[in-house]
Write a structure and sequence with these properties.
The protein contains 10 helices and no strands. The protein has 187 residues and is mostly helical. The chain has one domain. Keywords: Membrane, Transmembrane, Transmembrane helix. The chain crosses the membrane at residues 6-33, 40-61, 134-154, 160-179.
């Protein structure tokens, strides 16, 4: 039982971090290999903890938006209005959260700053997508059985692609907040 609680805590913390946390699938595989936990329980608890962590991440970006430069904060609010116009934009945002293979931290940070964006549908789409991907990772964990789990963690944390992706996502969030969305709304 304590390993399941530790799993939940680690995944919650990792998903509440704004950047550079290990991917949740590596945490799931680590617990699978080291503590012989039930794969279905790992997936279910992983999805619930990751969704809760991402919800908390979006919430505290929303709550503390006042500490972000005013121009950036206002642009993000206008971006929220822009993406709420028309059902096509709304559904494309949900699809992004459903199938996004990249780090979702910055997606939730942006959603938190866009105060008009409802978080529950995004979290539901995220949970559905992660149910599929985590099931795949946990089921396929046997394929990396020859590697030590520590090697997998270190590789993911030190990978130039992983670091570059995190930096690109942070820069993307900054770029998104510097677009004049109010002007785009008037077009």
């Amino acid at each position: 039982m304590q390993y399941y609680l530790a799993l939940i805590a680690v995944i919650l913390i990792a998903n509440a971090m704004p950047a550079f946390a290990p991917p949740t699938w590596t945490i799931l595989v680590f617990f699978l290999f080291n503590y012989d936990l039930h794969p279905a329980a790992l997936v279910i608890l992983g999805v619930l903890a990751a969704s809760t962590g991402r919800g908390f991440l979006a919430w505290y970006f929303r709550k503390f938006a006042r500490y972000v430069p005013t121009r950036f904060s206002k642009n993000m609010e206008y971006a929220g209005h822009y993406f709420q116009e028309g059902s096509g934009k709304k559904y494309s945002i949900l699809a992004l959260f459903l199938v996004s293979p990249i780090s979702s931290a910055q997606l939730f940070e942006a959603a938190g700053l866009m105060k008009t964006i409802a978080l529950k549908p995004l979290l539901a789409a995220f949970a559905l997508g992660r149910t599929i991907s985590y099931s795949t990772y946990v089921t396929g964990a046997a394929a990396i059985a020859g590697s030590t789990v520590g090697d997998v963690f270190i590789h993911e944390l030190k990978s130039p692609w992983a670091i570059a992706t995190q930096i690109a996502m942070i820069l993307g969030l900054v770029a998104l907040g510097n677009i004049d969305w109010q002007r785009r709304l008037k077009q």
